[in-house]
Amino acid sequence: MDSTSPSRAKTDMQLMSEYQYRSLCQDIGTSKVIDAKRDLMDISEVLQNQALGNGDVFMGSGSNREGFRLQGSDVDSMFWPDNHRVIWDLSQSFSYKIQRKTLILSDSSDSPPGYTLLYLLSPSLNQEVQKACVKMDNKHYISSSKYIQSKCSPTYLNSNPRMHGPCISKSHGILDIDYAYGFFSDFWPPSASSWTERSHSWPKPHIVDDVLKSGCHFVAIGHELGRHEHNEWRISFSLAERKLVYSMNHCQFITYGLLKFFLKKIINDGQSDDDKLLRSYHMKTAIFWVLQQNAIPEWTPQNLLECFWVCFKQILKWVYEGVCPNFFIPNNNMFLKSIHGKEQHVLFIRLYKLYEQGVLECLFIKSCEGCQDILQNHISICTDEDSLISEADFDVKLFEEIFYNDTLPALNAQMCLKYLYTIEQSIGLPLSKYQVIVVQRHTCSILQKLAFILHMDSLTQKNKRKYRADKLFCQILKFAASFGCITDMLFIAIYYYKTYRYMKALFIINLIRIKLARPYVIQNFDEVPEMYSMALGSQSWSTKMRHAVAWNIKLHNKMPYISELIPEHQSSLRNDIPSLMVPPFILLNMLEILCYNHTDPMKAQKNLYILKINLLLDEGYRISTDVSNIAWHILGMCQQMTGHFQDALYSYQQSLREDQLHSIKTATEKRILEILEKNF
Fold first, then answer.
1. Are 240 and 293 a contacting pair, CB within 8 Å?
2. Measured in Å, how far apart are the chain's first and last C-alpha atoms?
3. What is the spatial distance between Cα 502 and Cα 495, in angstroms, rounded to a whole number?
4. Can you tell me the distance from the alpha carbon of 324 to that of 535, in angstroms, rounded to the nearest whole number?
5. In the predicted model, is pLDDT for residue 604 greater than 60?
6. CATH number at residue 94
7. Is the pLDDT of residue 156 over 60?
8. Residue 572 within any structural domain of the chain
9. Are residues 162 and 201 in the same domain?
């Protein structure tokens, strides 16, 4: 038995709770960081849906959309046709103009709780919907299995998609994205009506009203034990769940994050995907139930571990009983298909052993470095927001998130103009301070894409019109660079190189090099220069981004910016990678070598040597590990074009040893083969 007195044990628990809270805030994010992430995703999603207008609505979901950035986690995306709506009874059809909406009736009379059949009430012009229809009792129902199969075609995804529950999972380099395709209902499901009756203490009434107005979705998977497994659809509450997670205070959100870490690092550690019975969704369900039952009167950093332990005991109880009630539809037992019999018994024994260890032991907190000093000396940990993150560190996380969200798809001039029109309309909206800066970033990126797209379209024009067009494209790129980050000037240099104005390109390259040499410039999101706060503290984020941020350059694979990189774009695109991300100083040196190769070959050789030395000596300051493969590859290209074939082979081999974020392995191997065939 532990000889520590109850009062002392409680104090130890509080100290360790504060320690763990601070540690998790550094890993997951402070409340300000999480708010910023969510705001950026919210506005990016709105812009994408308003601008695309292709008939489908896009919505991010899952942990990523909630604000987590967990290593190895999937990114979840939902799509549904905007001109189709699901209703629960025929009286709801009067809410729509049937000329504009195809109506679908939910029929759950013969389905397990949480699942339903979808009966097509009016003809659909959507080809995927038409192909997915099956006839039962002289009625046309939309088959979930047939519908998801139609989305596996090359029209939507390239080769090698795999099914992952109701989703089509696709690897994009080192990132996995789950695509869920389904339908939407504006109305709250009758089978979830008990949720509103239970929601007295949590969430607050205005959140309940907002959730009810958000409706629900239907994703393409049936119940394995249902009579119509291949035709049924699962009712999804993804949007409602996101709103509930957003309504959590930060300690509740951090507890949710701790449950996720506990699941991944301890419960499921070392297990294959097939052997993982507990999932992240079960952790979310547990904290929802604990919050609604008001089992913990106060959620604060001091009692974080107590909050976690209550949630863990809830999961332990569910595993023992073999019942995990869905938060919205409690008679939907989410353990029914997976946790029963021998597997249930084995899982319970494993969890109970962790329970017997106690919260500090099972989380390995007592063995953490520094914990013993805290316990022995009763060192109190400050958990105030301002003490958890500095202004400079917050800025870096904000800029990193802006870069992460700068992915609006715009592959033709019409789409670019739609985005710009949508952005113009957003100026009058009540945007948050975080959303203003990401809209600025999106505008810069869209203008850059527009300039290069229009340039490609103008190549067949007559000389006079081509000259005017060229002047316009230069103005667009310069305007974009005026409110972008430092490295956005590289697109001007690329354009000059592409149009054979090598001296002008070299002039821009020299300007960029001067700006990058400033001691306060952030060139890696993992490190903040010491001079940053002194030089730019209290300045606006727009000013900081223009003068002190140099992030990787995104070269979109469907837009050939530099002809020498076409094989790399093609290799990457075949693997569903949207763009090449090139470290700015690598691209800068590459452009300089390319320009000098046309104007002064001796200087090209000198700059090649500088590029090689910089790459060899860089210790992650300017080149992060995820882009080091393309850095070595580009060095190899420059060595190959200047006749240094042996060095080029070494660089290409080094590129192959690095993480293949860009999936350019095919291009690298082809370049190696080309050298061997011609020179050895």
1. no
2. 74
3. 10
4. 54
5. yes
6. 3.30.460
7. no
8. no
9. yes
Angstrom distance (rounded) from CA 277 to CA 300? 30
What's the domain range around 149? 54-247
Q: Quick check: 117 and 233 in contact, CB under 8 A?
A: yes
CA 220 – CA 182 distance, rounded (Å): 6
pLDDT digits (tens, 9 = 90+) for 266-313: 999 888 877 899 999 999 999 999 999 998 989 999 999 999 999 999
**Rounded CA gap, 574 and 670, in Å?**
15
Distances in Å between the Cα of 192 and the Cα atoms of 187, 215, 221, 245, 295 are 11, 11, 19, 18, 22
According to DSSP, residue 549 is labeled: B
In a domain, 221, yes or no: yes
Number of domains in the chain: 2
70 shares its domain with 47: no
Q: Are strands 84-87 and 102-107 parallel, antiparallel or unpaired?
A: parallel
Residues 92 and 185: their CA atoms lie apart, in Å, by 11
Report the alpha-carbon angle 312-316-322, nearest 5.
140
pLDDT for res 368:
66
Q: Which residues of 400-431 are buried (b: 16+ CB within 10 A; e: fewer)?
A: bbbbebbebebeeeebbebbbebbeebeeeeb
Q: What is the pLDDT of residue 11?
A: 76
Range 424-433 average pLDDT: 88
What CATH number is associated with residue 344? 1.10.1410.40
User: How far apart are alpha carbons 631 and 608 in whole angstroms?
Assistant: 13
User: Within this chain, do residues 205 and 101 fall inside the same structural domain, yes or no?
Assistant: yes
Residue type, 476: I
**Which of 387, 414, 443 corresponds to the end of one domain?**
387
Per residue, what are the HEC states of 116-159? EEEEECCCCCCHHHHHHEEEECCEEEECHHHHHHHCCCCCCCCC
CA distance 152 to 171: 14
With H, G, I as helix, E, B as strand and everything else as coil, classify residue 200.
coil
Residues 365-407 have pLDDT tens digits of: 655 666 766 666 667 778 888 889 999 999 999 999 999 889 8
Q: Average per-residue pLDDT in the chain? A: 90
Co-location of 112 and 190 in the same domain? yes
Is the pLDDT at 157 greater than 80? The verdict is no
**Can you give the pLDDT at residue 92?**
95
Tokens of residue 660, six digits = 């293949």
Collapsing DSSP to helix, strand or coil, 330 comes out as coil
Answer for the pair 323, 335: CB distance below 8 angstroms, yes or no.
yes
Q: Is the pLDDT of residue 661 over 90?
A: no
Asked if the structure places residue 660 within a domain, the reply is no
Q: Indicate whether 208 pLDDT > 50.
A: yes
What's the predicted TM-score (pTM) here?
A: 0.91
Q: HSE of 214 in the Cβ direction (CA atoms, 13 Å)?
A: 18
Q: What is the pLDDT of residue 404?
A: 87
Structural domain ending residue among the three candidates 387, 407, 424:
387
Phi, psi dihedrals of residue 167, rounded to the nearest 5°:
-110, 155
Interatomic CA distance for residues 547 and 185, integer angstroms: 47
Specify whether 228 is located in the same domain as 196.
yes
Look at residue 169 and give its three-state secondary structure. Answer: strand
How far apart CA 580 and CA 143 sit, in angstroms, is 38
3-class DSSP state for residue 220? coil
Specify whether 10 is located in the same domain as 90.
no
Q: How does pLDDT run across 481-500, given as a tens digit for each residue?
A: 999 999 999 999 999 999 99
Please say whether the dihedral angle defined by the alpha carbons of residues 617, 623, 627 and 633, taken in this order, is positive or negative: negative
164/269 same-domain check = no
Dihedral in degrees, nearest 10, Cα atoms 518, 523, 524, 528? 20
Residues 353 and 255 in one domain: yes
